[in-house]
Amino acid sequence: MKKRGILNSEIAKIVDDLRHTDRIIIGDCGLPVPENVKQIDISLKQGTPSFYSVLELILEEVAVEKAVLATEIKENNIELHGQLKELLPEIEYVSHDEFKQLSKEVKAVIRTGEDTPYANVILQSAVIF
User: Which of 84, 91, 86, 85 lies closest to 66, judged by CA?
Assistant: First the structure.
């Protein structure tokens, strides 16, 4: 049995299989997931686990070269947006509608229990030397 790292076997498998420029989403409990995209639902109740706690754990395991956020987070979730600007590398902003379109091309969506607005991020994996 694993002693450290990501214990959820589905998430660990997705993380292990990521290659350069592959993308995953960490999302809130309301983000729609396209039918052809793997959904890993770890939500337990509203707010648990939080988006931020899941993101921190994923960032311990994944080299990220770019993140994509919905522009709407800037005005609708100011506190989380501030935290993300400090935590993430290069950030690209798109409309929430465009974000949902981009979700069709990700390897997986990790659904958290987060219930604050626009708490969704696309993470693009980096190359490791």
Answer: 91
Residue ranges in 18-128 assigned as alpha helix (H): 51-61, 73-76, 78-87, 96-102
Where is 9: in which H helix or E strand? Answer: helix 9-17
pTM over 0.90: yes
- Percent of residues in the chain assigned helix, strand, coil, to nearest 5: 35, 25, 40
Catalytic residue selected from 5, 13, 20, 46: 20
Is 20 among the catalytic positions?
yes
Buried b (16+ CB within 10 A) or exposed e, 9-26: eebeebbeebeeebbbbb
pLDDT in tens, the chain (129 residues): 667 889 999 999 999 999 999 999 999 999 999 999 999 999 999 999 999 999 999 999 999 999 999 999 999 999 999 999 999 999 999 999 999 999 999 999 999 999 999 999 999 999 886
